[in-house]
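note to self: dont lose this again. the chain is below, predicted strucutre after it. 294 aa total, dont forget to put it in the shared folder this time
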Amino acid sequence: PDQPPLHPGSTSRPGMINILASNYPQAITYNLGRFKFTGFGIAMLAAFIIAQIIAQHELWRRGHDPAPISDLIFAAVIGGILGGKIYYAILMGDVSALFSRAGLVFLGGLIGGIVAVLFVAWRKHVSLYRIADVGGICVAAAYAVGRTGCWAVGDDYGRPWNGPWAVAFPNGAPPTTVQNMTNMFHMHFPAGMNPLEVVSVHPTQLYEVILAFIMFLILWRLRDHKHAEGWLFGLYCVLAGVERFVMEIFRAKDDRFFGAFTTAQVLAVLFVIAGIVIMQMRRNITATAPGIHA
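---
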């Protein structure tokens, strides 16, 4: 009785159980003295740790020195944060967004992380294709873990929906109220609805956790491919681009600067094209394009 009401019709069909929307996930926050740890921060830390473990294991298994991975992971952290914040500030059209706690967009973080890792690998004279081939597996695994953090803080959710696994975020970032969904994402609701009413949405964070884990399983299954180093990263780009393009259909967003397509969907298409090009370039092992094993 003390929970805010859902959008009317969230359990419209007799016998339908709106499983997640009846639970109202609470934001996960831990206070340790003057420091505050959120579910998102914890998930991000776990994501980078998992990426480092996988990268070091794969390089060692393939017969290569895993020592540079620590520096590359650190570069990925810095580049990922900067890329995500810059992308967010551009979308918001507000430079001050760079200094807020909110806004760490995945595509921006992915681009920033890739640039930072490749730069450090180049400076350390490490094969870019070798690192990239292992990196695709790591990013997929890290993404699956990192997206649980978005669920933990109620961020990056989907469009209003009354389906069987819809979920509401009364304490989300921001809460899924009629007012927020209308003002921030330009969603439309029936006239007369209470602006403070909490509505149910697609749990896109969980969709992405599942899809990212599937990407990881595919890449893990193909990690002993017979192509040149870098081919697997091309496949990752294709899978990640398709995943992002599809997820944008369900996301609560309003950045459709390219007609019916969002900015992220346009970038996703570019990722797919780049991935196909990389896969073709690294399809065959040659004197200048070695295989994955030392």
